[in-house]
Design a protein that fits this description.
This protein is an alpha/beta fold. It has a single domain, classed as 3-Layer(aba) Sandwich (Rossmann fold). 48% of the residues lie in helices and 17% in strands. The chain contains 6 helices and 5 strands; from the N terminus they run βααβαβαβαβα. It has helices at residues 12-21, 23-28, 37-45, 60-69, 89-101, 110-118, and strands at 2-7, 32-35, 50-52, 75-79, 106-107. Strands 3-2-1-4-5 form a 5-stranded parallel beta sheet, sandwiched between helices. Strand 4, helix 5 (89-101) and strand 5 (106-107) form a beta-alpha-beta unit. The longest helix has 13 residues, at 89-101. The termini are close together. Bound molecules: 1,3-dihydroxyacetonephosphate. 1,3-dihydroxyacetonephosphate is lined by residues 6, 8, 36-39, 55-57, 60-61, 86, 92. The active site is at 61 (proton donor/acceptor).
Length: 120
């Protein structure tokens, strides 16, 4: 299964910590990780295999949204920073909308992501 991981700048350290805490599940359940660009860099430095797409502001969220729409991406873990502004807010909304359109599980904070991990 394919899981997309995305973290805004203020949440990237939390994403790395989250993945480390769930590395067993990620390694043993045949999961392919995809990500936006800078999130992917951080996560691969931490030792995870990840297919990093474009950085969010350059279209990474939109690329992941397309994979959701095409049925290729099965889950999205998106640690958003609600206290920051994002020039690509329309892309972010599109991604979340398409998760709802296609009934793809979407976690927008670590607590929800934790529950989704337990379901794997
Ligand atoms: O902006 C993002 C999500 O909206 C994340 O993009 P980066 O992983 O490239 O920082």
């Amino acid at each position: 299964m394919e899981i997309a991981i995305i973290a805004h700048d203020g949440k990237k350290a939390e994403m790395v910590q989250f993945l480390n805490e769930h590395s067993n599940v990620l390694h043993h359940k045949n999961i392919n990780l995809i990500s936006t660009g800078t999130t992917g860099e951080k996560v691969s430095k931490a030792g995870f295999n990840v297919n990093a797409l474009l950085s969010g502001p350059l279209g990474g969220d939109a690329q992941i949204a397309a994979r959701v729409a095409e049925g290729k991406c099965n889950m999205v873990l998106f640690f958003r920073d609600p206290l920051d502004r994002h020039p690509h807010e329309p892309d972010i909304l599109m991604l979340m909308r398409l998760c709802d359109v296609h009934n793809v599980p979407l976690a927008t904070n670590p607590a929800t992501a934790e529950l989704l991990m337990k379901s794997l």
